[in-house]
Amino acid sequence: MELKDLFLTPIYLIILYGVAYWLRPKCTDKVTKKYFIPALTVKFIGAIALGVIYQFYYGKGTPTGDTFNYFNHIKVVFSAFLDSPVIGVKLLLSSGEFDSVTAKYASKMEWYRSSTEFFVIKIGSFFSLISFNTYTVIALFFALLSFSGIWAMFMTFYKLYPTIHKNLAYANFFLPSVFFWGSGLMKDSITIGALGWLFFGFYQGLIQKKNIISSLIIIAISFYIIYSVKVYVILSFLPPALFWVFNENSAKIKNSFLRAVAKPIFLTVGGAVATIGALNLTEGDERYDVDKIGERTKINSEYLSGYEKNNSAYNIGEFDGSISSMLKVAPQAINVAIFRPYLWEVRNPVMLLSAIESFIFIFLTLKLFMKAGFFQTIKRIIALPIVNFSILFTIILAFAVGTNSGNFGTLVRYKIPFMPFYLSALYIMQTSYKKAKPPVKVLRRKYSHT
User: Which of 105, 48, 50 is nearest to 73 (CA)?
Assistant: First the structure.
């Protein structure tokens, strides 16, 4: 961060808040209006706090970490634009190739040929052109992108369960890890923002059958963004999302016989499409190719576990990289992603926030199972399409990040895409349980006549 951050950030905040207040009536109703500005504010706080933490906590005054590595690359692209807009545009449209025109700048960028990182750099470079290449202002624009998707996610849940808007607002906007790690100049901000729009597009276009053309465009753009940045999130989202769509559509068939016949067909087709999509999406990609995913998972886990220096590494058991061995450690991986770190595993202030969130997840999960009972809870998960989608997505992504991380420092970033979905599902099930529970007066009357 530089001196210009202190001068320009307040100016851009005023502009962005002005745009937000102008947009609020178009994006809210009487109930949701009160959440719009506070939700945006915590995103802005998260974006600024991320830079401050990385510079003054992790870097001891020196800019460090992925967020400033992105910014250093952005500065190179910005300098190219200052020298020649043509060269700048050529860099933004490049796919890692070198030529006589771009070599001077591309050679300075370590991530030039890393497609996922350079995708983030391209977005950041665009914002640098309208922010005088200021780190904090670029981070605010990333927060804005992230907020737009999170708001779309919240409104989707709100349409389904408007009576629990307070709980849904907390689950989507105010989880500290989500608005901290998912707001700044990072891949995570783009991912969770696009994920929110993808979720919205699926619901509006494929379930509500409204604004189908615009919904498909939203799905396509969101899909491309997530695929470009974190393709494993798409692999985790696709199967439960298709299951959700087919489940919702099969439930609309009024004839019970046709519904009984159609549902397994829908599920089979959905599973086949998801499998084909997963195989084709990753074919030839050494990072995510299905044939190599076990091997890559083992390498990533061992590397990150060995690299961690602040005692935040975790161990889910031995696995050799084969799919069968990964399945053996699946329960531990899912548990560590959703419910850990435990409070007694905290080693630093950042880890404490994650531990508190994990404790809340444990408490609400156990509370639900204790009140409704194990089998009734499972029955409710199966019966509510939005809940089984959220739980399935959580389990699949938790398994993926739990086996790939190896330490809580990286895990907290990897897991934020499923956190709003899991907590929203818990709140929805609590509401469903309360509605299904017979009123106390009815029970008293029933037994008073016996």
Answer: 105
What's the DSSP call for residue 288? T
Tell me the backbone φ, ψ of residue 100, rounded to 5 degrees.
-65, -25
Q: Which of 370, 365, 371, 307 is nearest to 338 (CA)?
A: 365
| Type of residue found at 253 | I
Q: Give the chain's domain count.
A: 2
What's the burial of 254, exposed, middle or buried (CB within 10 Å: 0-12/13-18/19+)?
A: exposed
In whole angstroms, what is the distance from residue 421 CA to residue 183 CA?
A: 17
Q: What's the mean pLDDT in 20-38?
A: 95
The answer to whether residue 61 sits within a structural domain is yes
Give the pLDDT of residue 447. 44
pLDDT exceeds cutoff 90 at 253:
no
Range of the domain at 371: 309-450
Q: Which residues contact 294 (CB under 8 A, 6 or more apart)?
A: 319, 321, 322, 323, 325, 326
Region 397-409: mean pLDDT is: 83
Question: Among 55-64, 217-226, 271-280, which is the least confidently predicted range?
Answer: 271-280
Tokens read off for 90: 């050529």
State how far the Cα of 165 lies from the Cα of 246, in Å rounded to an integer. Answer: 26
Is residue 241 situated within a structural domain?
A: no
Instruction: Say which DSSP state 407 is in.
Output: B
Residue 83 lies in a domain: yes
Average pLDDT over residues 113-121: 91
3-state secondary structure of 437: coil
User: What is the pTM assigned to this prediction?
Assistant: 0.87
- Taking alpha carbons only, the member of 393, 390, 365, 369 closest to residue 379 is 369
Lookup: tokens for 85: 């807009």
Spatial distance between the Cα atoms of 369 and 390, rounded to a whole number of angstroms: 17
Compute the C-alpha angle 89/67/76, nearest 5°: 30
* Cα–Cα distance list, 416 to 172, 190, 240, 301, 398 (Å): 11, 12, 17, 19, 10
Last residue of a domain, one of 147, 173, 199: 173
- Give me the residue label for tokens 């189908």: 212
| DSSP assignment of 116-127 | HHHHHHHHHHHH
Q: Which of 125, 140, 173 is the last residue of a domain?
A: 173
Distances (CA, A) of 286 to 130, 293, 321, 450: 36, 8, 14, 70
Whole-number average pLDDT of the chain: 83
**Residue 59 within a domain:** yes
Decide: helix, strand or coil at residue 383. Answer: helix
Helix axes 115-128, 65-83, angle to 10 degrees: 60
